[in-house]
Amino acid sequence: MSLDNTALLTDHYELTMVSAALRGPLASRSCVFEVFARRLPDGRRYGVVAGTGRVIDELTRFRFGDDEIAQVSQFLDEDTVAWLRDYRFTGDIDGYREGELYFPGSPILTVRGTFAEAVLLETLILSILNHDSAIASAAARMVSAAAKRPIIEMGSRRTHERAAVASSRAAYLAGVAATSNLEAARTFGVPSAGTAAHAFTLGFAGPDGPDEKAAFAAQVEALGVGTTLLVDTYDITQGVRNAIDVAGPGLGAVRIDSGDLGVLARQVRDQLDSLGAPDVKIVVSGDLDEYAIASLRAEPVDTYGVGTSLVTGSGAPTAGMVYKLVEVDGIPVAKRASHKASVGGAKSAVRLARASGTVVEEVVYRTGSPTPDGEGHSVRPLQIPLVRGGEPVADVPSLTDSRAHLADGLVSLPWEGLGLSHGDPAIPTRYEL
Amino acid sequence: MSLDNTALLTDHYELTMVSAALRGPLASRSCVFEVFARRLPDGRRYGVVAGTGRVIDELTRFRFGDDEIAQVSQFLDEDTVAWLRDYRFTGDIDGYREGELYFPGSPILTVRGTFAEAVLLETLILSILNHDSAIASAAARMVSAAAKRPIIEMGSRRTHERAAVASSRAAYLAGVAATSNLEAARTFGVPSAGTAAHAFTLGFAGPDGPDEKAAFAAQVEALGVGTTLLVDTYDITQGVRNAIDVAGPGLGAVRIDSGDLGVLARQVRDQLDSLGAPDVKIVVSGDLDEYAIASLRAEPVDTYGVGTSLVTGSGAPTAGMVYKLVEVDGIPVAKRASHKASVGGAKSAVRLARASGTVVEEVVYRTGSPTPDGEGHSVRPLQIPLVRGGEPVADVPSLTDSRAHLADGLVSLPWEGLGLSHGDPAIPTRYEL
């Protein structure tokens, strides 16, 4: 097992297809594959593209070394194995930048290359985009609901240990302020944060019972008075009193992790104020999702800690994107059977906006056709170059840039597009195909 | 970034707690942490423990090397950093074996060590168990619903690229026959399988239109007549005819990936039989979950391909397990505030069964108390040693053994426990605490 190699993060059938394709002209035919979502998750108004940066990074580690070759040799012929040994993606990729909003049918990623080199990337590309976009899409709703109050992402323990790292990244892209996850801090530079759990307070219990004050004193000594004390291990009112007794009014914050968070936040705010500690902030956590966050908007909450619902996409754990062959040697192709029919031919897209900046429509059109006329609206092309000749382009937007881009994008939506209730996509998509 | 190191797959606050604990006696107090689920996901009758083997493996790679030290030095004092440099878990872990069924309150994993060494493992242990158990629990329901027909797991593209590997492992544990994921084949020895996607058939299109027969011929030439041909790219009836024309009645199978799978399976079966190909099997795929699988029980389906719903836990993407400090220097401790109160003290559990093998009750009792009396039922202890003095024990059950153990466990449930409809846990849990 080599965790730095990504070549086996793919499906068996991608390789058997390559094997069959290599026996004839198909392997080297010029192909266009397109990533898109047929629909948004139930009731969602928009999706957020995330993971593109990771796709480009993992692509460079998609190589068949000796270990990978040994594995695939178990079911592949020698010619295919030899071809895989030399495998490098040499094609081009264009796509929506990270942090771009997307809608049903948006051509999120366009991969151009030979059939064999491009088909091989299907699973890896979809895994990354489907996961990261699901998390970013859910996180963006939470960030909107929090109305500028900061959110700390702390869901690592509720998802696969490596998915947790990507989740932190996607959440940060979506506007979350910080993460609990240290690997995300190292790998992607996401600010990390955290202070203490109930176990810390419980650990000070002795034969005579709990000693919350000793726990708080030890934490303040180690982490400074600006720390956040968790006040709901035993009795919250006593906990708040202990916190201020120990730390004084310069304490950074108290955290409440259970109970009716709205009621408790008000009680604790009143208590802190009456204790002469009006500057001590209140952090709430515990099963929060975008709806719970919104319901706390009128309460004296300063920071939200969000876990499970964020890293599981708040009901939509995958974005449902697909990777479809749409063109072979310039000929548009599409599956015809049943309800999964799609439209052949490489596509591009633009988004139209009013002078105010509010977007009104997305137009998907055949790549190479004239850019659609905005009829008085501004017209912004949505795809940018990401990979040329197999190499990442120099100016792929950074995570920080993408984060700002998304913040702008959300502001550009018609107001009803930011609603949490179920509804149609925030803007319609028109097809000029 | 080093993907082989797991030390940063943890939360910032685990390390700040260690830092604060190291300044006093807490760091070295003898502690017991317990992993359990307060409840099963909505309406589920049982959970399946999965991931234990991965926990043990990743534990051995939980080390703070230079890179990890550089990261945590940004927010930790020198003493803590020095302590982390030497960090090795030296304690003991007992737990439910992989493939064991669990219920609310089951003491799934018990970690014994000093506060500092044991608190540090919370996030990593929970990430693995919560993810893998969620997938295995969903997969077990699908395997039950499939009633001995094989299932191929093919959901890698719908989840994080590394979560996909763990999902394949968990699905195999739960009785799924094979996976599409090649990394799972390499890392965990899960059998991998796959043939071709629509893209392969579409790739044979030319200026004169599609050429499904050429695609089928190329696939049969490369993969042999025992392969599975995907027949719904264009017209299914014509696709089946083309498949038999090209491959003859010795063809392995046809796959249908869209449409009303029950209706289509019957049509295709009739057509195959009338074409003199009664031995050609039918594989169905496309948005299957346990309910769809069950609804196809009366149809002539031979194999199910399951993707999205499996790797996302079919509505329950995380198992909701928590890691709680329950004992400090022999003193039981527990959070008291609000609805998240739990019971202190280290716990053990046994499962009682009738002579027929049908289980009737789980009994959770204080570790060290006498094993509960079965009152005529057989009594099976549920925890086994997993780690001693920081080292994995020699006889941790293999994935294959665990798979067989789960199959036995499912058979031991009262019949209503295998129902797919919402209901209570299959057996009650009695607390002798």
Describe the structure.
- The structure is a homodimer of 433-residue chains.
- Chain A has 433 residues and is of the alpha/beta class.
- Chain A folds into two domains: 12-135 and 319-345 and 364-398, Alpha-Beta Barrel (nicotinate phosphoribosyltransferase); 137-315, TIM Barrel, CATH 3.20.20.70.
- Helix content of chain A is 34%, strand content 20%.
- Chain A contains 15 helices and 19 strands.
- The first copy, chain A, has helices at residues 12-22, 52-59, 66-72, 78-85, 115-119, 122-146, 163-173, 182-188, 198-202, 212-223, 236-247, 261-274, 290-295, 308-311, 399-411; strands spanning 30-37, 47-48, 92-96, 101-102, 109-114, 151-153, 178-179, 228-230, 253-256, 281-285, 303-306, 321-328, 331-332, 347-353, 359-366, 378-381, 383-388, 391-392, 429-432.
- In chain A, the strands form four sheets. Chain A has a seven-stranded antiparallel sheet. In chain A, strands 7-6-11-10-9-8 form a six-stranded parallel sheet. A four-stranded mixed sheet of chain A has the order 16-14-15-19, with no helix packed on it.
- In chain A, α12 links the parallel β9 and β10 (281-285).
- The longest helix of chain A has 25 residues, at 122-146.
- Chain A is globular.
- The model of chain A has no long low-confidence stretch (mean pLDDT 96).
- At the A-B interface, α1, α3, α6, α7 and α8 of A face α1, α3, α6, α7 and α8 of B.
